[in-house]
Amino acid sequence: MSEETIDDSCSVLSSITQVIAVICIVVPLICFMPGLPPDMTFSYHKLTVQPVTLNGKLNNAEKLFLNQVKGPEDVVVHNNELYTSSHGGSIKKLSNGKLISVIKFGKDCNEETIMEEDICGRPLGFRFNRKGLLYAADAYYGIYKANLSNGDVEAIVSKNVPIDGFNPMIPNSIALSKKTDDFFWTDSSTTHLLKDGLYTFLGDGNGRYNLKGSNTGKVEVFSNLPGFPDNVDYVDGRFIVSIVMKPDKFIETLSEWPIVKKFAARTMSLVEYIVELLDSLYPSIYFKKINHWIGHFESLHSIAPPPPGAIVLFIDNTGRLVQTLSTNDNNIGGISSMTFFQGHYYLGSPFNPFLARVKAS
Fold first, then answer.
1. Between 158 and 226, where is the model more confident?
2. Contact criterion met (CB below 8 Å) for 304 and 317
């Protein structure tokens, strides 16, 4: 072996040793240095996924308004008209084959770019009460009550007012009493905004809801599900549960390694801080795009796309699964809500650039 070959081998070995040394220093530093954001706990979780038979009853879905609507999160029927919430900050109504905006709670913005989501507002769950008033949860602005007939809008829960010491960060879903004017809502995080929702996925949950009664503070398993649920509706004595994501091997494995989740979250936070600093010094649309992408749920879809497929479950009052609607053609996925309207199932999603529709059989 020539001296030149030996020198090259030594150089490669030296480089590998340096890389290993840096990793051995940096990784523990990021994982164990006190005070690094995010301020969350990371625990071991064993996902128990209930298997479900895919029956194809949601196959051959039409993709309505393709690339004309982004993330129609919730779908609701009121007075024989269909409404949906979407990116851009608006709640829209299906009218004469078109989606028209009926109300927006956020500020003026460029609705074509998701980077201004926190300015535009992002309505998630919404419902109409027995008097026809709209109650809506906007992830960036709070809970609103609106009269669509005369345009009156009232902010009834502010994002800027702490509740039990914590500001609501992601107002998400709404449920209304059928007998009174009472309403119930969920706050999906007390630490992060929706645009940093991936942190809530990696860390332990800190969302909350407020219910009073003899079972206050108690938690019990109502029903085991085949994936992560999103909106839950209650119709004709049954709960309708949409599965927004089915866990794959990557998600199942990640849930069992809290130190990996902690390292990922802290690394994301550090990179996000560096990008924000660079953007403040050298303003650039590219820095803004990168900053928005880091931590957003959309990034999870890019890094580890969830398995395709749509599942909607019907569960009775005892937690028993009584009916399933699902796909086996992988045409659509990421379903967050479902409603029946004029002979079709309409399927909402926080991610899809269309509103899915399937003829009911």
1. 158
2. no
